[in-house]
Amino acid sequence: xxxxxxxxxxxxxxxxxxxxxxxxxxxxxxxxxxxxxxxxxxxxxxxxxxxxxxxxxxxxxxxxxxxxxxxxxxxxxxxxxxxxxxxxxxxxxxxxxxxxxxxxxxxxxxxxxxxxxxxxxxxxxxxxxxxxxxxxxxxxxxxxxxxxxxxxxxxxxxxxxxxxxxxxxxxxxxxxxxxxxxxxxxxxxxxxxxxxxxxxxxxxxxxxxxxxxxxxxxxxxxxxxxxxxxxxxxxxxxxxxxxxxxxxxxxxxxxxxxxxxxxxxxxxxxxxxxxxxxxxxxxxxxxxxxxxxxxxxxxxxxxxxxxxxxxxxxxxxxxxxxxxxxxxxxxxxxxxxxxxxxxxxxxxxxxxxxxxxxxxxxxxxxxxxxxxxxxxxxxxxxxxxxxxxxxxxxxxxxxxxxxxxxxxxxxxxxxxxxxxxxxxxxxxxxxxxxxxxxxxxx
Amino acid sequence: xxxxxxxxxxxxxxxxxxxxxxxxxxxxxxxxxxxxxxxxxxxxxxxxxxxxxxxxxxxxx
Lengths: 442, 61
What we know:
The complex is a heterodimer. By secondary structure, chain A is of the alpha/beta class. Chain A has helices spanning 17-27, 68-76, 110-113, 117-132, 142-147, 153-167, 176-184, 201-213, 259-266, 273-280, 348-362, 364-369, 421-439; strands spanning 4-13, 33-36, 48-51, 54-57, 63-64, 82-84, 90-93, 96-99, 193-196, 217-219, 223-230, 233-241, 244-255, 287-294, 303-306, 312-316, 331-337, 371-378, 405-407. In chain A, the strands form 4 sheets. In chain A, strands 1, 2, 10, 11, 12, 13 and 19 form a 7-stranded mixed beta sheet that branches. In chain A, strands 8-7-15-16-17-14-18 form a 7-stranded mixed beta sheet. The radius of gyration of chain B is 11 Å and the shape is globular. The longest helix of chain B has 5 residues, at 14-18. The model of chain B has no long low-confidence stretch (mean pLDDT 92). Chain B has 2 helices and 4 strands, in the order E-H-E-E-H-E. Chain B starts with a strand and ends in a 7-residue tail after the last strand. Chain B has helices at residues 14-18, 42-46, and strands at residues 2-4, 24-27, 29-32, 52-54. Classes of the chains: A alpha/beta, B alpha+beta. The A-B interface holds A 39-41, 49-51, 56, 58, 221, 348-349, 351-352, 374-382 and B 8, 10-14, 16-18, 26-29, 45-46, 48-49.
């Protein structure tokens, strides 16, 4: 049986944020672009599950309203239907609500958690040094860094919460270096954030529309079987769709499948031992999203950080900002948790139970009016981050040992800082798109 | 008969939202209500970790 063959400038495997942002940026500049997605739906973990009239995120709950992700949408002219959370986040600690200070100073919140002004001042100065003078070693955990200045339980809890939400790993395991580099880098993009009014998938559909309007293709149920490499140069892929296998020849191959899968698809013989070791040592993270519905809002605050809980990190009353995420008259809430340790053993059922117990203990109206609609666990082959920034963490670059073969998405980062979340994925896409534009013309 | 590979299923619950019969419930692990499941195969198509399959149990009958 003869195999079909097609030719594109760029073929992209996977339709997550990294894949679709990269494809849209290149298609917009005239590159003939194909995106192959194995699932029947696009978006990966920036997608939406429509269930009983409610919209459940597959990973990306809220997106930044500015920064690199937004800049991609602006550049390619994609619709960015997002409503901002206009009120500042609040913190729930010991059953008390603490407001984020409105002075815009990121460290002024610390004095809300600790009355010892001298201790807070020392910690603030230590953090400022780490951010502006000399970042800590990658072998130091955030907790060990904090312990140099404070052992105050509330302060530690604040950093543990922030670290777990943005890094998916607690302060005792997270690299202090990556934490502080990110706060002066990619995490700046997280203010303000907003909810996509029709779910995160609407943003991915907007990018898909740009790609198709510019002559590119986005194929679903199209699974990558192999990345073709000749003389250490990528020259295409073999994909399997509903109608069988097709060979796609391309000048550049961009993988949004994660570095481990990229290596498997291309063949590990093309990569050096050091790179393979770094890829094998990548630690995928675990997080859980619970969707709770009700006939009335369970909290009057859209964005609540929950401190000193067993597991619960945040409780988002999304309907207060984007009513379209629930049927008329109904309310939807998203809560997120992570395990006590990403590298230690954890029990899936125990994690679900602790998350729900935290909802009962911290959200009073949950017990009276809340109903759990959906429990989503993400780990292993479906992680929240492919490469969790624990101590000793290695940033995996976008370029691979195979010429014209790139990785995008949360498995790869810039050398000088972990690229987390949706802006991190968009950043890797922009870096790769710029490199391709510099290296060859469409 | 629908079966889940417990080694690879992560409990993401995507299948639950696509099941037209409301026969699946993810709660960390995946529960299958065989009284409701009509073997339409939609869940298999939407499983991101390829953990669902139809097992041939005819030889047990």
